TrEMBL record:
Keywords: Membrane, Transmembrane, Transmembrane helix. One of its GO terms (cellular component) is membrane. It is found in: Membrane. Residues 33-131 form the TonB C-terminal domain. This is Energy transducer TonB. It is a single-pass membrane protein. The keyword Membrane applies. InterPro entries: TonB/TolA_C (IPR006260), TonB_C (IPR037682).
Length: 135
């Protein structure tokens, strides 16, 4: 059952500004992209667990993602940096990662792999605001 949910998604590049990075070099992966990756999904691929939605339980999950130069997420390397405090929300965030699609980050016009910090905010429309909410 898919439920209407309010998600706030954001991207923060975690790469470092490199020296004159060359494709294929170690510094290439660490170089700050000229263009950050852009999420291409028309619909948010994360599913709010029904049992938590019905009880208006909300939470934030902070993930580290690795996005290839093809714009695909490497699901096996995705990690939870900060759990929500609700294992079902954490698992829902991890489950949605495999369906994420991106326009790859670019450095001087060339697609590059990057590491991202990716927050997933599970919000119920009738739930209370959580610390840090601005909507």
């Amino acid at each position: 059952m898919l439920l209407p949910v309010l998600f706030t998604l954001g991207l923060l590049s975690c790469t470092e500004r490199g020296r004159s990075a060359r494709p294929g070099s170690v510094d290439w992966f660490r170089a700050m992209p000229d263009e950050r990756p852009q999420m291409l999904n028309a619909d948010v691929p994360f599913r709010y667990p029904v049992s938590l939605y019905e009880r208006k339980i909300q939470g934030n999950v902070l993930l580290r993602l690795f996005v290839t130069s093809d714009g695909l997420v490497v699901p096996d390397s995705t990690r939870i940096i900060e759990p929500s405090g609700h294992p079902e929300l954490d698992q829902a965030a991890l489950a949605g990662v495999s369906r994420l699609r991106f326009r790859a980050a670019r450095l001087r016009g060339t697609p590059i792999p990057v590491s991202l910090i990716f927050p997933v905010h599970f919000r119920h429309p009738e739930g209370p605001k959580l610390p840090g909410d601005s909507l």
